[in-house]
User: Fold these one by one.
Assistant:
Number 1:
Amino acid sequence: MKNLAYGLGILLVAILLYLGFFTNTGSGPDTGLQGKEAPDFEATTLDGRRIKLSDLRGKIVLLNFWATWCPPCREEMPIFVRVYRKYKNRGFEIVAVSTDSGPEGVRNFIKEFRINFPVVLDQKGKLARLYRVQGLPTSFLINREGKVVKVRLGEYKEIEKDLKKLL
């Protein structure tokens, strides 16, 4: 009986966490970054390239925090792949930051969704802490001057509309 109650308690906590952190809650979680310069970072992509956010100045950047196990992340990724293909030659870049614990599942995810933009692995949560990520997925739209113009918690289905305003 104790095991059943314990299991139900764990399930309830998991459901509450999912509903609280991984649902489509709209834009603007209070990260304190909207309207400010995006914190610079340097990271290594899964294919071994170094990427530095400040090197992307002059481009519009979507910085997306996600994980392979996150249902809304799986829902929005095809949108990002399509939008990136359409606008990458007009000065748009995506940096996808996986919060997974290892690269194997991430590599499979990249193949499954045919991701064609840089993916970095944030195993220790350093970048997520730097950006004060409160749930997944979280996206930061950064203008050509390096300022965060939108913070989006949940699926970012309106990325193309927001991007067109900045192009």
Note: The chain has a mean pLDDT of 87.
Number 2:
Amino acid sequence: MSLLDLAPVIPVVVIEDAETAVPLARALVAGGLPVIEVTLRTPAAREAIARIADEVPEATVGAGTIRTTDDISASVAAGARFLVSPGTTLSLVEALDSSGVPYLPGAATVSEVMALVERGIKELKFFPAEAAGGVPYLKAMAGPLPDVRFCPTGGIRVNTAPDYLALPNVGCVGGTWLTPADAMAAGDWARVEKLASEAAALR
């Protein structure tokens, strides 16, 4: 099954302390969001991916902010089951092709999308969604590119997510609102589970 069809929202999480990875993942899964993107923005990210992969088998954990071939190999070795990049270069997409796991390459313009479609890639990350034009932009792309589907990410909130999910070319959205910094710091996993439950009900 496509990554875009597993849940209406993919939590995009920044993990500062690998000790929080497992309880965080369990809270998100309990709330109905089994697909989790751990961004490679902290030194703890790869260990966090490994812990989730080892201890929360019901979660589909992936690595985000993929920018280099080293990011790809290290993430797959840690147990990432999918990869997400903020943008796409030729060398990066070739490495993603060779990774052996599903991936969502990032694109923000029609030309970038068309270049990926030429390679047979029709499921993409649209980033940064709000800054790049949001719902109106994606709606406009659906006309000339009806066979491409997106996971918009960047600036989306619980109140704007339904507008994206209503578009025929959007399979799911990426969201950072599910893991507020204060809830993460306090270990308030009940709050994270509640936010996940609300997000899971968006579709």
Note: The chain is about 40% helix and 15% strand.
Number 3:
Amino acid sequence: MPLMATNRKHRVHVGGLRQRLGQRLEIDISEAFPGLQVIASRTTESPVTGTLTIESIERGVSVTGTLKVPWEADCRRCLETVVGESEPFVDEVFQVNAPEDSEIIEFDGDTVDLDDVLRETAMASLPLSPLCGANCLGPDPERFPAGLNGVGSEDTDEDEDSEGAMLADPRWAVLDQLDLN
């Protein structure tokens, strides 16, 4: 999903802050980013919250802090709805005349626009393939077992057959016939 333009709610004037290195400003964040999605995970209508610290550094400012991003997703095995909250850490540098080939964000020296940083951090924190529980067996565990050869993935200490060898995925069985000597 492409990033959409917003009303630029989190524009922070930092001109006065930049007059002395090391000066800090804390700002509280509370904004919903509904509709952000990665695979089967998506942000909810609840707001992303957190406190960010903006600190004056040479030629710019650094922005650090932790956000709380509420999300919902479909369990990768049973497809039931899973809800959770991720806590990504924000660590960005805004700099006047930033090098083009760096991850430093260019800005005008007076105003920091945090909207894109917040949106991208929220989207990057969404889980790729969550489970509703570690022992979720899926919708039909008799027909489609979650582990190899019918052994559940939560039984990692018991994933061996009677001879002590690890159970192999049957799709790779043909590789056992290769003679590499």
Note: The chain has two domains: 11-124, 148-177.
